[in-house]
Amino acid sequence: MSSSKVGKVSSVTSEYKWVIENFCTSCKRVGEVLLSPEFSTLISDVPTQWQLGIYPKGEGYTSNQCLSIYLYNLSGANITVNVSFAIVDGNGKVLLKKILGEKSFNKTLNWGFPAFACSYDIMDILDDDKLRIVCKISLHPIESIKTLQQEEEDDNEKFLSEQIKEEKNRVRLLEFDIFERMITEEDKFSDVTFKIGNQTWKAHKCILAKRSSVLATMFQEEIKDNVVEIKNVEPNVFMEFLRYAYSGKVNDIEKIAEELLFLAVRYKLDTLFGICEETLCEEVNFESVVEKLRFAHNYKASNLKKTAMQLIVSNAKNIVVLPSFKALTDTPDLLYEVLLSMAMHNIYKE
């Protein structure tokens, strides 16, 4: 692996700025890394040495032509902090920012983004061929920056009268009540009933058939007493499935994303599938990554699989010793994919 230390790091409270000149010509190949000068923090009275590293053309083949960025803990101490990375212009304006969230670092376990952004997109936003990276390290959660649209919406909200706010809340409650009554109470216009265990929901074929081609085909066949029994799913999950079919909304999706994705596959709701997959991608971490990879493999969730694979490849030494990783021997085709990704990753780094 070829590497060189370039640029200068300066500290502003818990923010550390790294400026790289001549960025567009800094690295030519995938796997070439640039390392920042070392810098230190004193968090909870624990002195810690850090270093930033970027792969301008990507760390490996899974992140080819993407800017990969990592924060390395050079000290031996275990420490848990919140981290964010941002690219800023010469005036300090944030051009791109991603929040890594709370992560545990030690001498061998480091974190970052294998695909922070497309390398060509980064080059397009640089006006002087200088890449300015700001890394924030904090004990407290890092707030995301509001967009201009969000700021305008906040300003507009301040001018709403209390009467208008109450009316908006009343409408929201009314919409909720209508949906709840529509599928749980007697409705003379409903024409199908879904049954899960002892619970039933009344629904409307015309609405559900528009959402799902699978349900549309089912409804064309004769259904005894117009009752459809659903198996292998929890009632609260199917409730949210119906809510999405009627309103395009889901409550508490982070708690049921895997189960809801299963229904999205069963009934071919591609948009719901994408929403669930995006939620699961945000939940990938060191402890859950192997199980998330296995789930993605089983349900052909390509984005989730890519996210999990990148984390495994980037932290192979720590993950291959986990019991969940050793259990991949019962899925040889998936294990082969992981080992191949690791091998290709090492080839690009050489």
TrEMBL record:
Residues 190-254 form the BTB domain. It holds the Pfam family BTB. InterPro entries: BTB/POZ_dom, MATH/TRAF_dom, SKP1/BTB/POZ_sf, TRAF-like. One of its GO terms (biological process) is protein catabolic process. Residues 13-137 form the MATH domain. This is BTB domain-containing protein. It comes from Trichomalopsis sarcophagae. The lineage of its organism: Eukaryota, Metazoa, Ecdysozoa, Arthropoda, Hexapoda.
